[in-house]
Design brief:
It is built from no helices and 16 strands. The chain is mostly beta strands. It is rod-shaped, with a radius of gyration of 31 Å.
């Protein structure tokens, strides 16, 4: 550790970088040209830093009401979270308290309101603190994706003659669609003609 004098009143800064948690004794001396005197001795405690990590979540579909987020914490009594979109605008936030022992890894959970969010990437930022020591964790982040809604519209095919073996149904538009499942109706009556997971990516 290094010491940097600040002013003539005797204050100084000690660089504690890299020191592990524990109790440290700080001794101070004053000097004249010929004499010295031990002025004070004080115990400084470096507290353990709380930790947190966010579990990965899969991408979701639009209009999903909420997304559950799980965090694992140690030495935390409180957590807070913020969710931001790609433009760094806040879309949700909140706070809470992990349950159980603060000394061992504890799982905590909260939900992010996603029902009205547009498709895209969103970042969850989580911090935890220990109210007893006043120490805070390093921030952890996680990105989740709301997928776009797949959609198609059909181009109306021409009529065909009775006995035609097959019918090609063209798409007028197609957006974010990989496969299609369908069934053919005559009015409101099922015909029994169906297709499942038909690849339409080409």
């Amino acid at each position: 550790a290094t010491v940097t004098p600040l002013s003539a009143n005797g204050s100084f800064v000690i660089d504690l970088s890299g020191l592990p948690p524990g109790e440290y004794f700080l001794a101070g001396w004053v000097y004249t040209d010929h004499c010295s005197n031990n002025v004070t001795q004080k115990v400084i405690t470096i507290q353990n830093q709380p930790t947190c990590s966010i579990a990965h979540i899969d991408s979701i579909c639009p209009a999903t009401p909420t997304v559950p987020v799980t965090i694992t914490t140690t030495l935390a009594t409180n957590y807070s979270f913020v969710v931001k979109d790609k433009d760094d605008a806040t879309v949700d936030s909140g706070s809470g308290a992990p349950t159980g022992s603060t000394a061992t890894p504890v799982r905590a959970g909260f939900t992010v309101a996603t029902a009205t969010l547009a498709a895209g990437d969103y970042t969850v930022y989580v911090d935890v603190t220990n109210s007893g020591t006043g120490c805070a964790s390093k921030q952890d982040t996680m990105v989740f994706t709301i997928n776009p809604t797949p959609s198609i519209t059909l181009a109306k095919p021409d009529s065909v003659c009775e006995g035609t073996a097959t019918l090609e149904v063209p798409f007028a538009t197609k957006s974010h669609t990989k496969t299609v499942s369908y069934y053919l109706m005559k009015g409101t009556t099922p015909t029994g003609i169906t297709g499942t997971d038909v690849d339409v990516t080409s």
